[in-house]
Amino acid sequence: MHSKTRALELQYPNDQTYRIPFELLRVYLYSPSAEVQGHSPGQETLQTGKRDVLIIAIERVSH
User: Fold this and answer.
1) Local confidence band at 16 (pLDDT 50, 70, 90 cut-offs)
2) What distance in Å separates the CA atoms of residue 10 and residue 1, rounded to the nearest whole number?
3) Of residues 50 and 52, which shows the higher confidence score?
4) Using an 8 Å Cβ cutoff, are 28 and 19 in contact?
5) How is residue 51 annotated by DSSP?
6) DSSP per residue, 4-44
7) Which pTM does this prediction carry?
8) Distance between CA atoms of residues 6 and 51, nearest Å
């Protein structure tokens, strides 16, 4: 996690590395947040103006 540049860096065993801006994690339509997904099907909303997004913790939740 790069707080200064606000990007999450993912590195895979094959040495490929990707940097994903925090903003993209928050606005992308696959975000599980209710703000993006809505409270029922058909309420999905593309979010904008999320440049000040911060990550305060990262937790492993799967394999």
Assistant:
1) very high
2) 9
3) 52
4) no
5) T
6) TTTEEEEE-TTS-EEEEEHHHHHHSTT---HHHH-SSTT--
7) 0.59
8) 9
